[in-house]
Model the fold of this input.
Amino acid sequence: QMQLVESGGGLVQPGGSLRLSCVASSGTLIGHNIGWLRQAPGKEREFVARIRDIVASPDYAYFAEGRFTISRDNAKNTEFLQMNSLKPEDTAVYYCNVEGTDIWGQGTQVTVSS
Done:
């Protein structure tokens, strides 16, 4: 079964940037929609962004539009989430997920704080 591993999280000041990666092993991203979701303390997990596999078009949550960019490198079996202009409210654990399945990564912590 495919496995996903996220990386790239960390502590960043407001206004800063981070680039998250989601690497797939034991499988290929091709043929799958891969989404990014996040969960802040005390809150439910929420959708952040996805790339639709066939048309390679991105979808973004309202709070990610204009600040986050999702991309994919099929040759590297990796999906990226570039996050710019980060705000304290972006603090959360970020997960990637093969949509429609229970395949999730372990998550990577993003903390935005001065």
About this structure: The longest strand covers residues 18-25.
